[in-house]
Specification:
mainly beta, Thrombin, subunit H, 6-stranded antiparallel barrel
Length: 354
């Protein structure tokens, strides 16, 4: 029963187009301080070949624990009370256990609150990766009598994104080039499990200055075609059930091999057809720790500019190719100039995968 309720919730999120997965950035880009480049690519990297994909997929992610995305006051017969706020919980905290019992869904949390009633409860939560223990007591909401903590929580997300590469040997894939972040807090959603579904692009909301565009898609809800295993700042990783992403494998470009100038991206903006479009790499940023915005690219292909206005939400993960090698992936669009966006280098994506 719980699985059916869970499935209905993420299906509703998909059907209402609640999320289109692509990063969005403001216009102002500050130059990072110059620092020595110390990446030493191993022989395995220079010998490795991956298949650039460029296909959109539907992604669904179920969180490990429930994330607090908002705090509110509960109207009671004694006035308004916020137990969550009073016990020290904050937006972005991830509740993982109640009285030692694991919690991963909204339904599980609601069931525990209903059974616990007005009795004190011990909550285990994560804040910035650190364990947090608090004690609180739910209060009865005057309008309906249900017990509440005064916290809005989220346990899943769904949307459309683009697969960057596929490894025929391991059947591993990587999509997006950035993580799936909660839309309210901006924090990386902790992955418990998830899957991908085949998709078809059914429409485009064209981007313009100040208003990023979007790909709209329909998903095959009958079955998953793969499993999500990691949600990281450098991309979403998983394994696919078959060889649908197989194709010509490309060698990988090291940072030192990537040059400013002409390049191409593979992107799926109509149905399930992947086309190659011309772009230009405008800038290669110095290494900056975990920052995944390694490149700035500009769309120069007239076909893509006419259809989308440049880079739109849903294209995140589109592989970047240059001189016969896989360079990385598109990750973000600039709000005030949708013809431009950021990209991540393939070596940084693989560092996370390893």
């Amino acid at each position: 029963m719980k699985n059916r309720r869970r499935k209905r919730r993420w299906m509703a999120a998909i059907l209402s187009a609640a999320l289109l997965i692509t990063g969005v950035s403001g216009w102002n880009v500050s130059a990072e301080p110059q620092r020595p480049e110390t990446v030493a690519c191993s022989a395995s990297f220079t010998e490795k070949r991956l298949v650039p994909v460029g296909r959109t997929v539907g992604l669904k992610l179920f969180s490990h624990g429930v994330m607090i995305v908002g705090l509110d006051e509960v109207p009671t017969d004694s006035g308004v009370i916020s137990p969550a706020k009073e016990c020290g919980l904050k937006i972005g905290d991830i509740i993982t256990q109640v009285n030692g019992q694991p919690v991963n869904t909204i339904e599980e949390m609601e069931e525990i609150l209903s059974k616990q009633g007005a009795s004190p409860m011990a909550l285990s939560a994560l804040r910035g990766g650190k364990q947090l223990e608090v004690t609180t007591t739910a209060v009865s909401c005057a309008p309906d009598g249900s017990y509440k903590l005064g916290a809005w929580i989220r346990d899943s997300m769904a949307g459309i994104g683009t697969v960057t590469w596929y490894d025929p040997e391991s059947k591993q894939f990587c999509a997006l080039g950035h993580g799936i972040n909660d839309i309210d807090t901006g924090l990386l959603m902790p992955l418990k499990d998830g899957g991908i579904m085949s998709s078809s692009v059914t429409g485009i909301l064209k981007g313009s200055s100040g208003s990023p565009g979007q790909l709209h898609g329909s998903f095959d809800l009958s079955c998953d075609i793969g499993t999500l295993t990691e949600n990281t700042s450098s991309g979403v990783f998983g394994t696919v059930n078959d060889d649908r992403f197989n194709g010509t494998a490309f060698p990988l470009a090291t940072r030192s091999e990537v040059k400013t100038g002409k390049a191409t991206i593979l992107s799926n903006i109509d149905g399930d057809s992947v086309q190659e479009y011309s772009v230009e790499i405008l800038r290669i940023y110095p290494e900056n720790g975990s920052d995944t915005r390694n490149l700035m690219v500009q769309v120069t292909d007239k076909r893509l500019l006419e259809a989308t206005g440049g880079i739109v939400q849903g294209q995140s993960g589109s592989p970047i190719l240059q001189n016969g090698k896989l360079v990385g992936a598109v990750t973000h669009v600039l709000v005030n100039d949708p013809t431009r966006g950021y990209g991540i280098l393939i070596e940084n994506m693989l560092d996370t995968a390893e």
